[in-house]
Amino acid sequence: MSESYFRDLYDLEGKVAVLFGGTGELVSAIAKGFAGAGMKVALGGRNPDKARARIEEIRSAFPASEAVFIPGQAGSREDVERTLAQTLEQWGRVDVLVNGAGVNSATPFLEISDEEFNRILNTNLQSVMIGCQVFGKHFLSAGHPASILNISSASARIPLSRVFTYSASKAAILNLTLNLAREWGEKGIRVNALTPGFFPAEQNRKVLTPERVESIMRHTPMNRFGNPEELVGAALLLASSRAGAFITGADLVVDGGFTAMTI
Ligand SMILES: NC(=O)c1ccc[n+]([C@@H]2O[C@H](COP(=O)([O-])OP(=O)(O)OC[C@H]3O[C@@H](n4cnc5c(N)ncnc54)[C@H](O)[C@@H]3O)[C@@H](O)[C@H]2O)c1
C-alpha cells in the first residue's frame, strides 16, 4: 500500500450519497460530514422547511458542496424509486445509501394499536426494505462498489423498556442488514448497520422523561448523550469503499458504552 493510499484513506471525493431521514438530527449530521468529505448529498425527507435549513447549514459549512432535497414519504416505493431516478439524473451515479427515517412511540405494550404498530413498522422497517430493494437493484448493475448503511438502535439487541414496536423494527433492520451482507457479499455491495445509542432528537424527545434520562446516564459509561457529529466518523468508515472495503454485515455501535454495560 502506497503513502497516498493512507493519505486519502476514505477516498470519498465526488461520491454520491442518498440519505433518507436526511432532514432529521442524526442523518443530517451524517450528510454534513459526507459533504465535508467531498461527497454530493441528496437528502430524502418530507419537510421542505427543515430541508432548506439543513441544506443551508451544509452549504455555509462547505461552500463548494453540492446538496439537494428530494421530498418523499418513508416506506413509499414510488417515492424511493423517484429519489433514485432524480439523483441519477442530477449526478449520474449513486455510491452510498443511508436508510435513516424513523419514528418512535412510548405506548404501553397492551395499548399498542394495530394502526400504530403498522405505522412504525412501515416508517422504520419497510422503508429500509424498499430502500435496499430499489437501490440494491441499481447497485447490482452499476458496476462500481456501493455501500448501504441502515440505521439501527441500541434497543435492537437488548430489551429497552417502553419502546416495543420501535425496538422490534430495529431488531428486524439488523437481521435484514446481515442477510443482505450475506446475499451481496461477492457483488460489490456492502451492507452494514450503524447503531446509535442515545442522542436527543425529535423522534425520542417525548420518550426522554427526566427519570428515563437519569436511568440512561446510569447505564452509559461515558455518562452523557451523544452529539450527532459523533456518528460521522463511523458513517464515513462504512461509506468508504477504500477504508471500509472489507466491512460488511457489521453492526457499528456508537453509544458511549451503553450496550456494553450491565451493572
Ligand atoms: N436519536 C437517537 O437517540 C437515536 C438512537 C438510535 C437510533 N436512532 C435512529 O436514527 C434515525 C434518525 O433519527 P433522529 O434521532 O435523527 O430523529 P429525527 O426525528 O430528528 O429524524 C427522523 C427523520 O425521519 C423522518 N421521517 C419520519 N417519518 C417519516 C416518513 N413517514 N416519511 C419520511 N420521513 C420520515 C423525519 O422527517 C426525520 O427527518 C432514526 O432511524 C432513529 O430511529 C436515533
Question: pLDDT average, as an integer?
Answer: 96
Q: Share of helix among residues?
A: 40-55%
* SSE class: alpha/beta
Q: What are the segments in which pLDDT stays under 50 over at least 5 consecutive residues?
A: none
Which small molecules are bound? nicotinamide-adenine-dinucleotide
Radius of gyration: 18 Å
Explain the overall architecture.
By secondary structure, the chain is of the alpha/beta class. The protein has one domain: NAD(P)-binding Rossmann-like Domain (Rossmann fold), CATH 3.40.50. 43% of the residues lie in helices and 14% in strands. It is built from eight helices and seven strands, in the order H-E-H-E-H-E-H-E-H-E-H-E-H-H-E. The chain has helices spanning 3-7, 25-36, 48-61, 77-91, 114-142, 164-183, 210-218, 232-239; strands at 16-20, 40-45, 67-71, 96-99, 146-151, 189-196, 251-254. The protein has a seven-stranded parallel sheet with strand order 3-2-1-4-5-6-7, with helices on both faces. Helix 2 links the parallel strand 1 (16-20) and strand 2 (40-45). Helix 2 runs parallel beside helix 3 (48-61), helix 2 crosses helix 8 (232-239) and helix 4 runs parallel beside helix 5 (114-142). 44% of the residues are buried. The model has no long low-confidence stretch (mean pLDDT 96). Residues 21, 23-27, 45-47, 73-74, 100-103, 123, 151, 153, 196, 198-199, 201-204 line the site of nicotinamide-adenine-dinucleotide.
